[in-house]
User: Fold DEAD-box ATP-dependent RNA helicase RhpA from Microvirga tunisiensis.
Amino acid sequence: MSFAELGLSDKVQQAVAAAGYTEPTPIQAQAIPHVLSRRDVLGIAQTGTGKTAAFTLPMLTLLESGRARARMPRTLILEPTRELAAQVEDNFDKYGINHRLSVALLIGGMSFGDQDAKITRGVDVLIATPGRLLDHFERGKLLLTGVELLVIDEADRMLDMGFIPDIERIVKLVPFTRQTLFFSATMPPEIQRLADAFLHNPVKVEVARAASTASTITQRLVATGREDYEKRETLRELIRNATDLQNAIVFCNRKRDVAVLHRSLQNHGFAAVALHGDMDQHARMAALDSFRTGEMPILVASDVAARGLDIPAVSHVFNYDIPHHAEDYVHRIGRTGRAGRSGQSFTLVSPGEEKSLAAIEKLIGQPVEWQGPTLAERPQSEGSSRRRSGRGEDRSRGRKVKVRSSDRGRGRAEEPREEAPVARAAQPPREERQPPREEQQSRRPRQERNERSSDRGYQGRSRRDEDTDEPVIGLGDHVPAFLMRPVTAKKAK
Ligand code: AMP
Assistant:
């Protein structure tokens, strides 16, 4: 099937051709004709299937006809996260190059002022997260009575994030006669109830069985130890030995772990950025941008931040933690192998996580292969003995030393890394890394001390930012600069 057969306008078809798409994806082929004929659509599709274009392209076509009403948006798209909303805006920019439409992005973390100004000038398309949309409505800045087409995207994610009451409120603010497109990757009973309530006689389009995984993804399990430092070491090995790694998302279950793992990877010389819900909007956008452009090929992320992100060519997904909810596994690994490309996913499994693994395998309806020994075959003492000695192999290699695991033991540990661009990109220029020794001594006495302590065989704790699991007592070796300043006592009167 070609795009020409779907009934899209010429302007839209030209934009699609300019984007380089030759054939509609299954969700596009199935949904677009129904959207154009003004039917409500219930779309069951994961991200990565091309579902954003499945609603954006017919929306643009429909917006070409009909009259723009002053200051009243005609279409409203609801997204669970700011990033997803920003991605939909990017889609409008890409597919709407031949249209002169005004699009407003109403998301948290950005100033109300700019958004207000845009609304006042009049917009055709609103893309919003539920909370911020309601904030604008309550401030009396927004009229939703002109909305003809409503899109509720990632409904199951909205449910996870507790947005359903907001969505129910918003739906009451838009006309009953509107057309509704409702997308969800899965259809648990609560989502089905909402679909029944919001949609009128919908056409159901489903591109993959709920909770199925794409066949383009090679999935592997990797047995590791229970301790964080063991898991970090396993992850580093996996990244170093990965074949065809272009870029990767590393998923953690907790925001705190995102931050810790991110810092650890950086300390080990990997070019990594972090993304989680507690970061402010600018930091999140900056992190995503550096990942998208390839400047930072590793993204360490939590589920909330990373679900649904449109990052076209992720070659690898690493589950640093096995997800608590089996469905998250499907979403996480769905970040790779998108739009027909191949991808690889690796899930770290440690003792005690067998139940979570069983739930995943049950959900996806197939066992996942182990890479290397299974959890039962893995020697249990390996990690703990290293912990007892307090010397991880990586520590002895130093913080910024970058070698592949195969280089170990060949006496090359101090050589700069030749391979693994994921690591190389993290490195500052050599001059910056290694100032002349005298300069180091005068500028950074603490580091010098620490280097010596590591030469001695790492007796005692040295650098606070080292990837170590030993607790720091007091300030450790670090003496804050203000304590070193000379103090002049005031003369007594
Ligand atoms: P989505 O499921 O909307 O997140 O889209 C996944 C990716 O597929 C995005 O990077 C789109 O740019 C891309 N895409 C969408 N439609 C097509 C198509 N017909 N052919 C090739 N790639 C597409």
